[in-house]
Amino acid sequence: MDILSNFRFEQVAIIMASPCLPIYKNKEEDKPEIIGYEPWKILTEYELRVPSVYDLYCCAERLLDDVIKEVHKNPKSNYQGIASGPFKVTYLYGNLTLDFVVESWGNY
Predict the structure, then answer these.
(1) What is the pLDDT of residues 60-80, one digit of tens each?
(2) Exposure class string for 98-108: b at 16+ Cβ within 10 A, else e
(3) DSSP letters of 66-93?
(4) Structure pTM?
(5) Which of 56, 26, 22 is nearest to 39 (CA)?
(6) pLDDT per residue over 24-63, tens digit each?
(7) Which of 32, 33, 34, 58 minimizes the C-alpha distance to 45?
(8) Which of 11, 42, 48, 93 is deepest in the core (most CB within 10 A)?
């Protein structure tokens, strides 16, 4: 699949291995204090860990396959989407997209 062969999984792995997620002291308080940072972990097939390039590739491949299966089940649908871990896959009007999502916020 063209998406998998062109996506920069190495870049995603480097970003996720960087200490970027805050570690909070007194997390339940109104204003918790950040006391450090840790790498971004995902649940792989076997454990919660900082993902390798291979782990990320497999995660993206599964998500892409799941969306494609949904499109085949309902070919008249113009939209399908799924997200897990750091990735979001979207099918919209015949276009399939794989996104690495670092931060997102919405008010719908």
Answers:
(1) 999 999 999 999 999 888 999
(2) bebeeeeeeee
(3) HHHHHHHH-TT-SEEEEEETTEEEEEET
(4) 0.86
(5) 22
(6) 988 777 888 999 999 999 998 889 999 999 999 999 999 9
(7) 58
(8) 42
